[in-house]
User: What shape does this take?
Amino acid sequence: MSDCEKTNYIGKSVQRVDVYEKATGKAKYFEDYQVQYRDLLHVKVLRSPHAHAKIVSIDASAAEALPGVATVVKGSDPDIAWADIPYASSYYGNPAKDEVIWAGQAVVAVAAESIEIAEQALELVKVVYEELPYVVDQREAFKADAVSVTSPELGIAAGYGGVQPEGPNVMGSYKLTHGDVEKAFAEADVIVEEEYQAGKKSTSQIECNGSIVEYHEGGGVTIITNGCGVHGVVKNHILTMYPQLSSNKVRVIQPVTGGSFGNRLFPLVEPLAVLMALRTKRTVSYVLTRKEMYTSSPSNWPVYTKLKLGAKKDGTIIAEKLELVEDAGAQIRGYFDGRLSSSGLMCVYNIPNVQCDSYAVRTNTMPCAPYRGLGCAESEWAMENLIDVLAEKLDMDPLEIRLKNILKKGETNPYGEKVTSIGLGRCLEAVADAINIDEPCQQDGGPWKYGKGIAAAGKQNTPLGRAEADCLVHSDGSIELLVSCDEQGMGVQTTLRQMAATEFQIDIEKVKVTRADTAITPYDNFGASSRTTYTTGNAVIIACQDAIDQLKEAAGRKVGLAKKQVTIKNGKAYFVGSNIESIDIADLYEPFSFFTQQTWGLLKGTPVRGRGVFCPAPAVEWFGPGHEDGRTPRMWNWYQYSAFGAEVAVNEETGQIKILKLMSTADTGNPINPKLVEGQIDGGVIMALGFSIMDHHMFQDGKMMNPNMSDYRLPTTLETPLQKNFMRAILPDPLPDGPFNAKGMAESIMIPVGPAIAAAIYQAIGVRPTEMPMTAERVLKLIKDKEASDAK
Amino acid sequence: MKFNAYYEPKTVEECVQILSEQGSDVKMLAGGTDLVIRLRSRALKPKTVVSLNAIPELSEVSLKEDGLYIGAMARLMDVSKSELLTGAWKIVKTGAGNVSSMQVRNIATLGGNSCNASPSADTVPGLVVSGAIANIVGKNGNRSVLLEEFFTGPGKTVLADDEMLVSFKIPKYADKTGAVYKKYSIRGDTDIAIIGVAGKVTLNAQDEVVDVKIALGGVAPTVIRVPKAEALLSGKKLTDQLIEEAAVIASESCTPITDARATKEYRKEMVKVWVRHVLKDAAQEAQKN
Ligand SMILES: Cc1cc2nc3c(=O)[nH]c(=O)nc-3n(C[C@H](O)[C@H](O)[C@H](O)COP(=O)(O)OP(=O)(O)OC[C@H]3O[C@@H](n4cnc5c(N)ncnc54)[C@H](O)[C@@H]3O)c2cc1C
Assistant: This one.
């Protein structure tokens, strides 16, 4: 192996940097820092029992008087930062003011010497509510005569942000017209149409959201948190909400954290904890309970899709019409307009005529935030199911119809964007092959019926955000990356390290990563949209190149050469045109001498610092005058793709579903670390199995019925197939602008799981689920309905 | 989780003494898998907690002339593996083995499962069809209650404030008796049952039903029997059609609620399915025992 191959770490399954500390329990999560503080206060929050109510009065005097209570926060307190939240109801976890708009919204918060005292204090608070009509069903909420989620006399009515209200709860809309849909439907040989619904779900990571806020004399705070985005999310929001805190008074540290999956993309616990720390001048710890994770931290946004497709006899899809509504929950402001979810219906197939009418609506349910897949698992649920219906009508097989219609590299998608990387065809072929889609399942005459199905998926990546990286070359020749990206378990510290080692052509053991402390590491926005490998990765490469450039210059000066005559590798500078062959990088640094320390040149103990800043090319406007069709050459960044195939068993007596065999394939761009990618695939598949067949929010009287882990049913190992039947493959199409041609990949794998299972159910038992999750009860109802209609 | 006093009596007498002194402010702690959750969530706020864990006699399992005695503190793991539970008594083993995970079964007790009085408790239907008797001790002495009559509502039993459950007696069963319990849940045993069905069938030499008991969990405020279905089957040979009829009656005679596990309609439907399976399997078992 040549030196260059040895230090090319791209595509190698290098071991994760954090395995030992995590496996041995040494890793320190934010709660482990509680023991450092002897003056710690604990926060507990009283939450609304009603889906919608006016707060008539709050009497917290007995709680305030309870010994051990340090402070009590109510929404009407003057020091609550409403500047960023003009409305009485808070998305950021602070107590509500005049009105509560979902069951689980904060009403009164207490900080006390112990959790016990805080809980006791909450029991002493008397709140008088006047219940108001509410709406939790998004289809109801969308109607023009729907009950209003907020009380018009108390707050902002619909139409915030200049959107024309189309009903009291409509938050916004995004519409796109591509070609002539009506004409295309008239020319179509086959037309299919159906309504689909995908449910409300929680990410359910094991580590509950929380943070510790340490108060500093002089009015500063250090926030130790498992929240996302130390700079881009937490610090920026706190600075906006508390103008008394200037930039140098807020330090945010993210220690080892559990998953986020989008759930922590908005600061939920930090604002209240900061307020309490400022008030009490003490350190405050605020950790959500599991119940609060379900009722008071964001869910996904459920999506309703009415989809119509038209095709020619040969299977070419020529028309797509969709009406889509995403349910943003109880939020007043936000960027929701249907565009995020509908993006899933715009990126997989090359359809020349598309009419998209998408909307966002409010409901009196837990406010939503991105959930792994950004609404595309919810919307493509419709597309993939309907394609299966279409294939049946055309008498085509599900693989053939997809291969015929998927976008090819260089083609233009309905937005008008040119597709720069797509590996979907191979992904589809591989899943069909793995489960032998052409071979029908053996039936055994028992209550379990067997079937197979496949589906495809695509997911956009955000063009938003900026990542910075510093690359330090220490005087011992080792490399240290300073980055602020989130590490939510995906392993990005390891991949960034692989990139840096490859850039420097150096042993990976010489590279370390220091991460996520605003006092030390430079800006990054957040870990979402599968963007970290791409955005932070590109910044790291730029930083490495900058550092290498500086080393070349320094080395060149030593031997009297221009920097282009110098190569850096193996921890050495190599020269062309000098009688000196090479110098160790460590030797470029002058040893400490009291008399020379102020001279030029590299100095022992002081690293060379390379800087990297990367921002994806910005989106091109799609709204406003001249953009009436909603199209643009750049709405998103690149796209990740995946396919899924499943063999399932359906119990005709109970409606239960068992997944017997599965195959997931992912177009990840060039994978930096295949093992980590496979980990993402397997984790994503299991998470998606959950929301496809079991886990979802259930409501009764406007309240979530199952806010705990025994009633919110997540899949366990028992619900996944045996190891040998749990298959995956990485089938990349390299991304030209990705770091080492990689793209992110953590979301697309979620998307095709549900529809592939639905197709398999249809094959097994002849019913087509339209609602996700496909719970046993729902499937049994479909079976019974079919029996009834067959009997007629 | 906070209480004023914690006791660990060494004998049943000592325990009853404490109970009668403390009145309704006391809670007994067996394995704690139900109790501790309620203490932590502040759903229960007793002033005193009395642990039953230091009373060795409460864990005894013994075979006597008149039946099998299982102490209230017998751990579900031990019950699920007990070699004394043979033949038609195996149904008690099955129920105990169906409770949640190994970790829970290692500490949870058979007595706790009954005293907690959840309508979906997995060991209760099997004990009920087996004709189990609850042996109770209180300040005024001992009494015995048919387990079927032990429950008065969700979370409620006939136990007075000064009384405790000490053991279950399971009477002997006749020849050609088969008993089967089936738990139906979404995620297997780690889930609480949507419904649970127990059936016990005794056949005569002609394979006619001489005794049958059906108990349903998770479909009413307490575990219930289905006398109408039992009457239908008595004295007859079990045909598929007869079993189907009994299943329909069972389904119609229960009054489930809708909760996070299932709707009432689905529960009724599942009663039909699982009564059918249970009766068929119990009849098969009866041929073996
Ligand atoms: C994760 C989890 C999963 C579970 N899954 C299941 C399941 O699948 N199926 C199921 O049936 N249950 C399940 N349970 C409930 C529970 O484990 C059982 O009901 C268990 O048998 C209770 O026994 P215990 O010894 O822990 O009772 P404890 O919690 O100690 O006591 C329960 C109640 O009974 C009272 N009590 C206990 N012993 C006596 C006595 N001798 N005399 C008078 N009163 C007494 C206590 O005061 C308390 O009120 C689950 C619990 C957990 C935490």
